[in-house]
Amino acid sequence: MVTSSTMVIREVTGSHVLTIDGYSLSKGAEDGKYFSSTFTAAGDRWLLRYYPRSNSVSGWTAMYLQLAPSNASHVTARFTISLLDWNGQAVPSCTHAITRAHTFGPYGFDMAGFRKFIKRKNLKKSDHLRDDSFRVRVDITVLKGTTKITTTKNGGATTDVANLVDAAVTSAVVVPPPPPHEITVSKKEETKEEDGDALASIVVVPPPNMDRHLGHLLSSGEGADVTIEVDGEKFMAHRAILAARSPVFKGEFFGPMEEGTSPTRVQIKDMEASVFEVLLHFIYNDSLPPDVVDDGESEAISMAQHLLVAADRYGIERLKLMCEDKLYNYVGTSSVGTILALAEQHGCDGLKKACLKFLMSGSNLKAAIATDGFDHLAKSCPTVLKELLSKVAL
To answer: Per the database record, which ranges form the BTB domain (predicted)?
Structure first.
């Protein structure tokens, strides 16, 4: 018996407009309090969660999309949440998109969205808030697969065709799950098909999803017990999670100097709020936010450099290595000076070797010397410059 299958992936789109009436009342809610509206779009049931006061970033409202708890299947989708003007058009400055497909867990176990949807003060003074109401629209694109399975019995005389319609596209689009875990029943428990083939019990174990649950804790602020202020912005977090991921946070929250007490408010200096926000996302999710991954080259280099410094500062080694790898891909004549200086200052040996190798190749050194980045290298890391010149002399 021979089987073959063909999967056709298609997109199913849908939109929903939510009117939030009584804004002045909702903004008085406590941090982390949300209001939700259930709707159907793109063939699935969803919840749009509105946080009048984002629990993780002070001064902002937040919007999140979540599968309805009644949905028992994974759903993979891209989506955009937009503030609407009163002509029904999306406001460009307040249109936020998840451009890479996100797989939502079943039963509403996780959600995705934007903790910085719009600043409350900006919404209050805008024309989009009228008669104490404003409107938002969510546009959803769900990826679904139609699978056709053909079974041909020995001899090719019979062909059975089964269509599995609208199967959810999950790991094939995002991250491949581990191989299915197969359990073969004992001989006493075997059953037989009509053609005599033995049936085995196959249990498919889903991929790990702890990051989704921890990510939900961060985005919802549930159980948060520490407020971290960075560059004027406030972030809510959980001391135990920060301590588990960073030896520096562990020492700060649970070190011997605390004598049984642990701070509930922390101020971090010499770091931009946007960098700490990405650092915090990584601590909870073990991955970078989609909008950081999709940044343009100059923005990506800048964020990777600042994030590497932050990761080194808090002892988050995997993130530091990810930043090294990111910067390695951007080594060029205009950037090599600053990247080499950063590698030297933060003990990134692999990145340093890559920069030196680049400078010793062809005319790269001559071109790099004329850049501001090379001036920065000469002033901040003169020993590296001497090392480079000694290698060139050889």
So the answer is: 224-292
